[in-house]
Amino acid sequence: METGQQNLLLRGIGVSPGIIIGKTFLFAPDDIEIPVITLSSKAEINREVDRFKQALEKSRDNLRAVRKEVERKKQKEARYIIDAQLLILEDKLLVESIIRTIRDKGIDAASAVKEAIRHLSRSFDDVSDEYLKERKTELDYIGERIIRNILGTKRHDLAAIREPSIVVAHDLSPADTANLDTSVVIGFVTNTGGKTSHTAIMARALEIPSVVGLEKVTKEVQNGDVIIVDGTIGVVIIRPNAETLRSYSEKKQMYEQLKQELFQYKDLPAETPDGYHIRLLANVELVEEVAAILEHGAEGIGLYRTEFLYLNRKDLPSEEEQFGIYKKVIKTIAPYPVTIRTLDLGGDKFLSHLDLVEEMNPVLGLRAIRLCLKEVNIFKTQLRALLRASAFGELKMLFPMISGMQEIYQIKEILHELKRDLKHAGIPFNPSVQIGIMIEIPSAAAIADLLAGEVDFFSIGTNDLIQYTLAIDRVNEHVSYLYNPLHPSVIRLIKNIIESAHRNGIEVVMCGEMAGEPLYLPILLGMGIDELSMNPLCILKIKKIMRSISYRESRDFVTTVDCLKTAEEIEAFMKLEMKKRFPAAFDINGS
Ligand code: PEP
Ligand code: MG
Fold first, then answer.
1. Residues acting as catalytic residues
2. What are the beta bridge partners of residue 304?
C-alpha cells in the first residue's frame, strides 16, 4: 500500500532528456545510523584501531575489484573516479586523523570514521565550484564504504534489480553503476549532483532520463512508489494521481513520436528550402561519447572540451596519453572534421596539480589560455599531442578565452617552435593544421576584424560571451533572469563577429548553448553563421526546423530584430513568428 503525499512535484537539474514513468528502486540510504560507543580500556582502543585498519584494507580491495570491472567495460571516466577514490583511501592525513579520533576521543572505529569524514567534508560545504563539490561526494563515499566494512553491512547492489526500475539514490558512484543491468534500469534520480556528476554522465551515455540535485528525493520516495521523471525539464513527480499520470503518459508518447519522427532527418542534409547549407556539429566532452554523435546526425565535432582529461586525477595527462585519445577521436569521426579545444580550466580546479594563488574572482582570473600561457609546459604537452594527432584526419585546433591579438602571437610562436621540433624529429603532423579562436570575451568581439586576419576560423562561445557582456555570472541563479541571448548587445556583437570574419574570408561556428536552441535559429541563419555545434541530442531538432525556414525569411527576421530595443521585445517577436509559421516545429520544444 502506498503512503506519503500524492502528486508531489520536485524540481532538480535535468541532465539526460526524456520522460519515464515507473516503479522506484530506492538505493543506498544516505546516512547510516551509528550509535557512538565509548571505549573504556586501552585494549578496546587498540582493537578498534585494528578494526579500522582491516576495513581500510578491505575497502581498497573492493575498489580495486570495481576498477577491474570498469576497465573491462572501458568506462574511462568511471576509472578516473575510482582512481581518485583509491587515492583518498591512501591519504595519510585522512587515515591518521581517523586513528587519532579513535585514540583521543576513545570512540569506536565506525563513529570515528564518520566524525573525521564529516569534519573534512565540511570544508567543502561553501564551495560553489562543481568540480570541488564532486570531490566532497567522493569523500563521503569513501567514508560510507569504510564504515560498512567495519560494521559488516553491505551496500545495496544495483545488480539485484530484476524488473524495470527507476533508481532513486542519494548519489551514484561508478562502483554502484559498474554492475547494473542496463536493460532494467530505466531512469536515475538523485539528491546530489550536477551536469558533470557521474550519474549525469552515465545517464547520458545510457540515454535514460535523469534528474539530479533534487536534495531530498530519497526522503520522499518509498521503495516501489510510482514516479514520473522528466529529464528534459528536470522535474520528478512522486506518486502521481490519475490525472497527472494520464497527461504525462500522453506527453511521453508525444515525446517518443517526435523522437522517432526526428530520426528520419538523420541522413537528410541540413539546409533551408532555398538551398542554404550549414554544418551541424556536436559538442563532446568524453571520448566515450564520440561514436554516438554520428547516430544523432552530426557532421563532425565542433567542440571537444579537453578539460575532462585533466580532472579527477592527481597527475597531468602525458603527451602520449593525450595523443592516443585525440587520434582515436579523429579516426572515429573521419572523414568528418574534429575541433579540439585546448585546456579551459580555472585556477581552483587545478589545486591538486599546481600551486596557484587563490583568486577572488576565478572567472575573471587565470583561466583557460591565460593559464596555458603561464604554465607553458602543460600547454606545450597538449599542443604536441594535438599536432601529432593532426596527421590522422581533419583536426582543427581551438583556443579558448582569447582577449586580444597578443595571445594569438604567443600561441603562434609556440606552435612554430613545436612544429620545428617535430619536423626535426621526423614525427608526422599536418603543417597547415587549422587554428581557430573562441570569441567569448567582449574585447575579442569588438576587434573581431583584427583577429580574423590572424586565424583560420572563429568559434562563438555564447555561454561566456553572454556572461561577460551582460555581467551575469552564468551559474548564479539570483541573476539568471537577466541572462538572455536575445539582448540587443549580444545580437549586435554576434553580427559584428560574423561580418568581420566573412570580410576576411574565414568561417564562423557557434558552439555555446545558444546554437542548439530552435528559437534563435532563424536569427543565426539570417546573420550568416556557417556552422552550429551543440549537444548531439539537439541536432535533429535543429535540422528539422532548418529544413522548413528559408534563408530569405531568416534575413527578414534579422532586419526586424535589428529595429527592436529590448531582449523582451525580441523574444516576444521570435516566439510569435515561430509559432505562427512553424507550429509543428515548436511542439518539439513544448513551447
Ligand atoms: C562557451 O563559453 O559558450 C563555450 C562553449 O565554452 P564553455 O561552455 O566550455 O565555457
Ligand atoms: Mg567558454
1. 198, 511
2. 284, 340
Which grid coordinates are listed for 79? 576509472
195 lines ligand 1 (CB under 6 A): no
User: In whole angstroms, what is the distance from residue 484 CA to residue 516 CA?
Assistant: 15
Q: How far is the CA of 368 from the centre of ligand 2 (A)?
A: 9
Question: In this structure, what are the phi and psi dihedrals at residue 303, rounded to the nearest 5 degrees?
Answer: -155, 110
Ligand 1: residue whose CA is nearest its atom 6? 461
* More confident call, 4 vs 443: 443
> If you ran DSSP here, which 8-state letter would residue 426 be given?
T
Q: What is the rounded end-to-end Cα distance, in angstroms, of the chain? A: 37
Q: What are the residues whose beta carbons fall under 8 Å from the beta carbon of 46, sequence distance 6 or more?
A: none
Residue 182 reports pLDDT greater than 80: no
Question: Half-sphere exposure of residue 320, counting CA atoms within 13 Å on the CB side?
Answer: 0
Rounded CA separation 270/282 (Å): 14
Centroid of ligand 1 to alpha carbon of 463 (angstroms): 5
Sheet holding 8-11, edge to edge: 8-11, 235-238, 226-230, 19-27, 165-169, 185-190, 210-212, 13-16
- pLDDT tens digit string along 394-430? 999 999 999 999 999 999 999 999 999 999 999 999 9
Closest residue by Cα to residue 326 from 388, 400, 377, 378: 388
Contacts with 93 (C-beta within 8 Å, 6 or more apart), sequence order: none
Give the mean model confidence (pLDDT) for residues 3-15: 88
Amino acid found at 166: I
Per-range mean pLDDT, top range of 121-130, 179-188, 292-301: 292-301
Atom of ligand 1 at shortest range from CA of 461? 3
- Taking 60 as the threshold, does the pLDDT of residue 82 lie above it? yes
Beta strands 279-284 and 338-341 are unpaired
Best CA proximity match to 217, nearest among 201, 203, 229: 229
Helix (H, G, I), strand (E, B) or coil at 90: coil
**Closest atom, ligand 1, to C-alpha of 400:** 6
Which pLDDT value is given to residue 28? 64
Sign of CA dihedral 562, 563, 566, 569: negative
**DSSP SS3 for 210:** strand
For residues 349 and 220, the model is more confident at 220
Q: Which residue has the higher pLDDT, 394 or 587?
A: 394
416 and 378 Cβ atoms separated by less than 8 Å: no
Q: Please report the sign of the dihedral spanned by the C-alpha atoms of residue 91, residue 97, residue 100, residue 101.
A: negative
Helical spans, DSSP H, in 334-461: 368-374, 376-389, 405-424, 442-446, 448-452
Question: Of 328, 323, 289, whose CA–CA distance to 305 is shortest?
Answer: 289
